[in-house]
Amino acid sequence: MGSGAAAGRRWWAWGLALLVIGVAAAPLVRYWLTNPGDQRLVDLDVYRTGGESVLRGLPVYEAITPAPQLLPFTYPPIAALLAVPLAALSWPAAQWVWTIGIFACLAVTTWLGFRDLVARPGRPAWAVPLLFAGVTAAFVYLMPIRDQVRFGQVDILLVMLCLADCVARRPWWPRGLLIGLATAVKLTPGVFLVYLLITGFGRDGRPEQRRAFFMAAFTAALLTVAPFLVIPRDAAGFWFSALLDPERLGANAATTNQSIRGMLLRLYLPEWLTSALWLVLAGAVAWYGFRHARRALLVGDRMAAVALTGLMAVLVSPVAWIHHLAWLVVVIAALAARERPWVPVAVWLYYVVPIPWWGVALRAAEIPVLSPVAGRVVQDAFGLGAAGLVWLLARRSRDARDAVAGPAPAAAVPAAASPPSSADPPRPPRPAGDRS
C-alpha cells in the first residue's frame, strides 16, 4: 500500500513537472509560432525544402526557400534524406511537431546533465521531477535555446545525441552510434570523434572510448557514403562545391557568428591576416580544450569532458551562430556539479540576456573611442564568454586531477644500514616502467 501511494505521488509530481515546463515554454511557442509566416521557423523551412527537393528529384543545393528569406540548404546530403518525412507533413503540422521535439530534446538533455544532482540519495521522490522541471524551465530562456524555437533549429537534438552517447549508463545502442549520426547530419559534432580518439588511444586510453570511436567513425562514414547511392549528384555537389562556400551559411562577420573566426572577421583586418590569426588561435584553443577534456575524463568528470568538447564545436568552427551554443545546457550541468551555486546561475543569466546586441547598439551610438572598442568587445560577448568557460572547466579538471593524485610523498628518511638476513629472500628486480 505504501509503495503504491509513493508511486502515485511520483506520477503526480511528474505530471506537475510537465505542466511547469509547458507553462515556461508557452510564451515562446505562442510568440514564434504566430510570427509572420515569412519569419517563422525559417531553418525548419530550409530542412523541408531539402526534403521536398529529394521527393521531387530537384537539385538539393540549388533550391532556396521562398522570399524574403531565400535561404539555401547547407547541410550534408544525408540530412536532406532524413528531412523527407518533414516535407511530407503540412507546414503547420511540421511547425508543431518540430517545436515540441525541441522541448523534448531539451528535457532529455537536462535530465542527462542534472540526473545525479536532482536525484541525490535521501531526496524525496516527489522532489526529483519538480527540481528537474525547474532547471528545464530555466534553460528554456537561454538565448541559444530561444533561438532554437525562433528558427526551428536542430542543434539541441545534436547536443542530446552526443551527450547521451557519452554519459548514458547502460545504453541499448552501441556507443559511438549517435555521435556518428550527429556528425553526418551537421559536421560540427565531429569534434567528438577527436574526443573519442584522444581518450581511447595512447598510454591512458580507455577501451570503451576506442570502441566508441570506431563505431562513430563507421557510422559517420556510412551515412556520408550512402547518399552517393541515392542522390549521387547532390552528394557530389555538396562535398565538392557547396561545402567549400562558407558564404552559403550567411554573412560570416554578422554578430550572430560567435566563433573565433567570426570575432576576427568583425575586426576587418586584411583577409590573409584574419586567416592566419584564426588558424593560430583555433589551434591553440583546440589543443587546450581537448587536452583538458581528456584530463577531465581521466579523473572521472565525464560531464566536464563533454562540455569542453561541445565548446570546441563552437569556438573552432568557421561559423558558429548563437543557437549553436545550445551546449550551454551541458556546460552549466558540469559547473553545477563542482562549482558554488552562484557560478552556474551567473553563467545562465549571462546567456539569457542579449548582450551581443548591446554591443551593436553601442557601436551605432558612435561615441569616440568607446563605441569602436567597448562596442566590439560587447558584440563578441558570447564567444568570449565561451572561451572563459573553457578556462573555467579546464581549471576544475586540473584541480580534480590534483585531488585524485594527492600530495607528493615526503622524502623517505634513510634507515640505518643493517646486514641482510638469510631468512629474507632476495627481491626480484623491478620491471622497467613499473612505478608502483
Q: Can you give the mean pLDDT?
A: 88
Q: What is the strand tally?
A: 0
Rg over CA atoms, rounded to whole Å, is 25 Å
Q: How many helices?
A: 20
Give the biggest sheet: none
- Shape annotation: globular
The portion of residues assigned to helices is 55-70%
Amino- and carboxy-terminal Cα gap: 55 Å
Poorly predicted runs are: 407-436
The SSE order reads HHHHHHHHHHHHHHHHHHHH
Structural class: mainly alpha
- The share of residues in extended strands comes to under 5%
Word description of this protein:
The chain is mainly α. The chain has a domain of 153 residues. Helices cover 66% and strands 0% of the residues. It is built from 20 helices and no strands. The longest helix is centred in the N-terminal third of the chain and has 32 residues. The radius of gyration is 25 Å and the shape is globular. The C terminus is likely disordered.
Summarize the structure.
The protein has 436 residues and is mostly helical.
Helix and strand layout, with pairings?
Blueprint: H1 2-33, H2 42-56, H3 77-82, H4 84-88, H5 91-118, H6 127-140, H7 143-151, H8 155-167, H9 177-186, H10 191-200, H11 207-230, H12 232-240, H13 260-265, H14 271-298, H15 302-315, H16 328-338, H17 342-350, H18 355-364, H19 370-379, H20 381-405
Helix pairs in contact: 1-6, 5-6, 5-8, 5-16, 8-9, 8-15, 9-11, 10-11, 10-14, 11-12, 14-15, 14-20, 15-16, 15-20, 16-17, 18-19
